[in-house]
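Hi there,

I know you've been waiting on this one. I reran it after we fixed the sequence typo, so this is the corrected version. Both the input and the resulting structure follow.
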Amino acid sequence: MQKLKLNTIFISFVTLMACATKLPEIVADVVTETTLHDTDDPAIWVNPKDASKSIVFGTDKNTEGAIYAFDLEGKVIESKTIRHLKRPNNVDLEYGFQLNDSTKVDVIAFTERERQQIRLFSVPDMKALDNGGFPVFTDVKEPEANSPMGIALYKSPKTQKVYAIVGRKTGPEKGYLYQYDLISDSLGVHAKLVRKFGGFSGKKEIEAIAVDDEAGIVYYSDEGHCIRKYHAEPLKGDKEIYCFGGEYFKEDIEGIAIAKYQDKGFLIVSNQQAHTFNVFDLKTNTFIKEVNLGTKETDGCDVTTMALGDKFPDGLFVSMNDEKNFFFHDLKKLKLLEE
């Protein structure tokens, strides 16, 4: 009986300590309407004519999946939502893609795993630019090594070319990521493979990818290992710049968002099994802090530091929540500039 009592006291003490050390939750300003299946990754399009009418796109990862479009109230915009997709995984956005000599369009790109391809649509008119999709990893024979998952778009400041950097369910220790040049000509838009790069620990998988266009740097999550950092410009080579941050994560390193201000930048990364986010200095890659935004098992996230009308005057942080929805936070609540 005495031993049972001591065990009960010990368990109560551990529970109390766990509660005492839990980070306070920063409550979401908006929780979106739910999707049908399984949310995964968001991308924010800032409307250049009226930022209060910006759109948040989010994947619904299922055999009968979709790219949902949400307004800033979290309501589904059905006219901008793309349905009947085969397991869309991750989504990204780029501004000013040169469609022809006289036309530039904003675009979203996303992976469609079960069709082993990536898709490209113009925004906000949501027109397909890919003639049904661009096949990826076509030279791969191993099971699931041709199943695209993560994607990030990179617009070269020097050449203005737009590239898609694509990850997959599994792959080799070197050359895990494929980079495609998105080329528009008189016959339409094409995806040309320009390089294979990126190290892989072999521990889990690589899904979350984000690019700092201005600096020409790509970051990606080697989930059970570290955040990897490479040059996004193909001509700058394939040597890894840095592998960092793994010690600050409970288990999986997941979604990555880059928040850039005039003189300061931050890398915000999902600490998935801890249900929190770790914040790193973008310049030094040093750990700054951990925040609790109330989401569970976050896969993907995105951020903008631009004012989005009265609803989000200090910018917006969007994160996937494991209850078929996304959380919207006023970026000021993360207190990035107060550190």
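Quick highlight: The first strand starts at residue 30 and ends at 31.

Best,
R. S.
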